[in-house]
Amino acid sequence: MLGKEDILIRKQRWDELYEVIRKFFSDRGFVEFQTPLLVQTPGMEPNLDPFEVHLNLVHPVEQKTGGLITSPEYSLKKLIGVGFSKIFSITPVFRNGEALGPHNTPEFMMLEWYAPGNYEDMMQETEELLNQYLGTSDSWPRILHENAGYDEFGDPHVVKEHFFITNFPAKEASLARLAPGGETAERFEAYANGLELCNGYAELTDPVEQRKRFEQEQFERKSLGKTVFPIDEEFLEGLGRIKGPIYGNSIGLDRLIMLKYRVGDINDIQLFPANDRWRNHYGITK
Amino acid sequence: MASPNDVKKGTVINYENDLWVVVSFQRVSPGKGSSFVRTRLKSLTSGKMVENNFKSSDSLTFEEVMYRKMQYIFSDDISLTFMDGTTYEQVALDRDVVGDDAKFLKEGLDVIVVTHDGKAVSMELPMKIEYTVTITEPASKGDTVSGNVQKDATVDNGMVVRVPIFINQGDVIRVNTDTGEYVERVKQ
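Structure tokens for the assembled complex are given below, as produced in the milestone run.
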């Protein structure tokens, strides 16, 4: 366990970040929400492994399968479906099946926000938030996905300290809307010091197309031998009620603090470092 | 044959007609495409460092290696010497094989020495090492315990580390050997 002074320093870094975020969004008229962590459909993406849980019920005895959220996306979009427009959440999220190392921990903090607007509005707002927190006034260069020199492992090779990758190919649209013409998706990612910081979309709000993508993801999960979660019908219904274009973005907050304070190991900014909690040592332990 | 997902620090692989020791690795599940393992490899024959990504679906040939817990005892300009605490057997590793990690060593430190065919091929540090601060300026009046303010501290093996201002001479601190950064003060 860390000592009091070390905890205090780390806590001040988190408090500062929360303060900047809350001021940034309240100045722009956003409303903050806490959303459920434990849900029946935690996330459908084939490449993600949610933590799975079993809900044991009595009267009558029944067991349900669910999981811990990999992002607050479904809950937040349901809120937009009932009429909220500019919303954000600061929440723990959970990812299983990844390395427990200097850049990843199974539980981390995420900022996610949604607002009416287009692709360019979203990137502009993200840039302003990053500059406000980092105390910089930099422009984050926009680099088209097709020019980013992606390697076969899906990593961009760009000689810049920080940048946005924009206009993803349509097949990597995920929950993003396709750009006019249909060849690229209105999705972007921010990178800094070689780490992915955020993943933003001009959101797909067509429930019919979304259902197709979910069914495709269920099929892919099944063929990978992964648990297939049921489609969240409440989410699809809410999606259909969203009026006009919206965008959404999510930022991993642990990595943002690492970036600001030039800390190389995610465990060294957490109050309860994941490596200590899981007694993990990513060197040799033999 | 083995899966790249089973790679660990110190694993020795037979790849493109050379033997390589895995210096660091990271399993990556990107938002798109298939998962892969990013590795930094050091050639056991030339000491050359390369970065290589292996798809999780690739297969690799692992070489049989032994991991021995040994103590660092001394060094000269060319090599570093380690001793087995039970048999007192000594092995030496060239400085250019150990590289930058040498700065973290101090007499009596337990490390893992990797041997292949009876020959020491690499050394692994613990993830965190404790050091005693031997020289640092006292915090001046008006400094607050803040996330930003740091100062230099020299520790018992001569290495200089950036530390928070509340650290005093004589304190024991933990340092991350991956990043070289201060982690925490050890309660005494």
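The radius of gyration of chain B is 20 Å. The mean pLDDT of chain B is 87. Further analysis is deferred to the final report.
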